[in-house]
Write a structure and sequence with these properties.
Elements lengths: L8 H12 L3 E7 L2 E6 H18 L6 E5 L4 H12 L3 E5 L5 H10 L2 E6 L2 H10 L8 E4 L13 E3 H14 L3 H7 L6 E6 L9 E5 H10 L11 E4 L6 H14 L2 E4 L6 H8 L3 E4 L1 H16 L3 H21 L7 H22 L6 E4 L6 H9 L4 E3 L11 E2 L12 E2 L4 E4 L4 E5 L6 E2 L3 H7 E2 L2 E10 L5 E6 L4 E2 L5 E2 L1 H9 L4 E7 L6 E7 L1 H10 L7 H6 L1 H15 L8 E6 L19 H7 L1 H7 L1
Parallel strand pairs: 1-11, 3-4, 3-5, 4-8, 5-6, 6-7, 10-11, 12-13, 13-14, 26-27
Antiparallel strand pairs: 1-2, 8-9, 9-19, 15-16, 17-18, 18-21, 20-21, 21-22, 23-24, 25-26
Length: about 600
């Protein structure tokens, strides 16, 4: 594709739309049928949104916000805002109204695109506290036929307004796009707020355009690739695949129906490139193991033999050791007879490469997927670096590491072990927060807040978050993430929080994997009526105790978990216990379950 006009996200988009024209850009499912949207239709919708916003008065350098589940309208709104020379602030669809208010007011948003009645209700809670907001635009108006408010308009009405403005003011959008400078803010991505209030990371057009190309430097993507869009679009991880790399590659973006239909849509679409947060891959792993436990004795026997062969091969390939010819032959047979069918049933049969990102994944889960013949790799990065710092190369995934830097990225390890990053993807800073910006970017180096090391092969290994490192009463430095990942690789443990700062020994708060523990309870005739009943049952406590013992055998003496408590509830985003990408908020957990922690000591 032509390299002209690639200095801003809108110019890159316009060039892509002109290049691919009537090819399919995206698909969405409505009333049980998949509908194609061509690049030409994509371009037309974005252009009309931009003209509509110009008519409403959105100026260059201002901000507008978007909230809703992944769908074409989310993307049309985002790019329409950017075509005006303004910045987009995405809001998590799962956020409570107080969190939505924070983003709208902190970003100084003048316009707010909302998906439906549920998201509109959130704005109604704080409308009097957001004086800069002028219009709320709703794209799904079901249930709002009798709703009238001068501040609210439908997405269709905005498109009509755009058509009128285009006739009155032809060329206005093109002029706005030409006026965008590479250093202008493209998007405000709000951090997940694990260590305090979310901060708006300002990513410039230069950052985003560069990353759109760089993301495919370790593993190429092609215009006949298919992806599934389901992670939150206000998170940089999803934007990389649904928006930024899309303009360079021209693959097809498939929007899922809802989070409840991920597994069904995966089978229908069979994407060629996969990307998800660890919780999704862990769920697939649990599902496979539960289904195999319920299979006939012959299927169980065949799967176990195939898995042992796959594990032996993965042990070698993931440690860069040669695979003997006989083992490779056995593996090909195991793949043909067992894994091929398993992957087809899950919708993974065409997946050439798959990424796990946004939070750490247990190395054992990666090992399992490699054993069944799936090239799942962990990428590493942060919003402040426009999403990705390192990924492995397909076929060269090294056990326990997060790969090598993307082309154009430099990494160095500071004296205290912190990972420092320099690249064209390093952000402009935090919006209206010069103090945090000065702490995060020093002499052009992004201070990641993560601790790690680079091995002899140039692969990066993450040991923990700098702020999370535990110093025991005996003065030993412990990295909780390493232990937590080992615990989470148990089928019965969904999450774990290791405690031990200034304590004599380590303990852990355990969150059960409901599906597998319920099945265990049913298989062992354990009576229960609620989730809480399960967490308090002696046989379940013994089950978890045995899982922890297995993990302890792989740990040094100071790293062993001496006591544990199963939390009486699951962790929820609305309770402030996890982020929308399912990262645990440690401070909140310590506050909410302080009495349970103290009881262990």
């Amino acid at each position: 594709m032509s390299e002209n006009n690639d200095y801003s996200v809108p110019s890159k988009f316009k060039a892509a739309a002109a290049h691919w024209g009537d090819r399919v850009a995206m698909r969405k499912k409505e009333f049980g049928l998949w509908h194609d949207i061509t690049w030409r239709q994509y371009d037309r919708n974005v252009t009309l949104v931009a003209y509509g916003l110009i008519a409403l008065g959105l100026k260059k350098g201002e901000c507008a916000a978007v909230i809703g589940d992944n769908c074409p309208e989310w993307v049309f709104s985002d790019l329409g805002i950017q075509c005006c020379g303004a910045a987009t602030a995405g809001v998590y669809a799962t956020n409570a109204w107080q969190q939505v208010e924070y983003v709208i007011t902190n970003s100084d948003s003048r316009f707010f695109f909302v998906e439906n009645e549920e998201q509109l209700d959130k704005w109604l809670h704080f409308r009097n506290n957001a004086p800069l907001l002028e219009k709320v635009i709703v794209w799904d108006t079901e249930g709002l036929r009798d709703f009238n408010d001068p501040m609210v308009m439908s997405f269709d009405k905005l498109l009509e307004l755009g058509e009128q403005e285009e006739k009155k003011n032809p060329g206005a959008v093109e002029k706005r796009i030409k006026d965008i400078s590479p250093e202008d803010t493209s998007v405000l991505i709000y951090t997940s707020g694990t260590t305090g209030p979310p901060k708006g990371a300002m990513l410039s057009h230069k950052n985003c355009v560069w990353m759109g190309k760089a993301i495919t430097s370790n593993n190429p993507m092609y215009d006949n690739d298919e992806i599934m869009s389901f992670l939150p679009l206000c998170h940089i991880f999803e934007q990389l695949f649904t928006i930024l790399s899309h303009f360079d590659v021209g693959h097809v973006v498939n929007f899922i129906e809802s989070m409840d239909t991920i597994t069904d849509n995966m089978v229908e679409i069979s994407p060629t490139v996969g990307h998800a947060v660890p919780r999704i891959w862990e769920k697939y792993y649990s599902t496979i193991m539960i289904k195999m436990a319920d299979a006939t004795w012959f299927k169980r026997w065949a799967f176990n033999i195939a898995l042992k062969i796959g594990q032996k091969r993965a042990d070698l390939t993931m440690n860069f050791k040669p695979v003997p010819a006989l083992l490779e032959l056995k593996y090909k047979l195991a793949h043909f007879l067992v894994f091929r069918k398993l992957k087809k049933r899950l919708g993974f049969e065409r997946m050439r490469v798959a990424y796990s990102g946004a939070a750490p994944i247990a190395p054992e889960i990666l090992h399992f997927f490699h054993s069944i013949g799936m090239d799942l790799m962990e990428g590493y990065g942060q919003t402040e670096g426009t999403g990705v710092t390192t990924t492995a190369i397909a076929g060269e995934v090294k056990f326990g590491t997060v790969g090598t830097p993307l082309k154009g990225v430099q990494i160095k390890i500071a004296d205290d072990g912190e990972i420092l990053v320099k690249s064209p993807g390093v952000f402009k800073g935090y919006f209206k927060n010069p103090e945090s910006t000065a702490e995060t970017i020093v002499d052009g180096w992004l201070h990641s807040g993560d601790v790690g090391e680079i091995d002899a092969d140039g692969y990066l290994k993450i040991t923990d978050r700098k702020k999370d490192i535990i110093v025991t009463a005996g003065g030993k430095n412990i990295t909780p993430q390493y232990i937590e990942n080992k615990l989470k690789s148990s089928l019965y443990i969904n999450d774990a929080v290791v405690i031990g700062d200034k304590r004599k020994f380590l303990s852990a708060l355990i969150i059960l994997d409901e599906d597998t523990v319920v099945k265990y309870a049913q298989d062992n005739k354990i009576q229960f009526s609620t989730y809480r009943d399960l967490t308090e049952h002696e046989q379940i406590k013994e089950l978890i105790n045995n899982e922890i013992k297995l993990v302890n055998e792989t740990l040094s003496q100071v790293e062993k978990v001496k006591k544990f408590t199963i939390l009486p509830k699951k962790l929820y985003e609305e309770d402030g216990e996890v982020t929308p990408t399912m990262k645990v908020k440690r401070t909140s957990i310590h506050k909410a379950f302080g009495d349970l922690i103290e009881a262990m000591y």
